[in-house]
Task: structure prediction
Amino acid sequence: MIDPQLLEILACPACKTPVKLEQEWLVCAQCGRRFPIREGIPVMLLEEAEAARAASQPA
Result:
């Protein structure tokens, strides 16, 4: 879905940590923000990100 070379250089715009691909999302390993992938294009805008869920919150 995303070119592996592109994935290597993408980082969370909030904390500058590399992101990893999880289904149709790019997820920051540090802050947990999830960025959508739309039509094969990663949307790395903080306004479009979903905040990390706390472990105590139901899914």
Q: What stands out?
A: The chain has one domain: 4-48. The helical segments are 4-9.
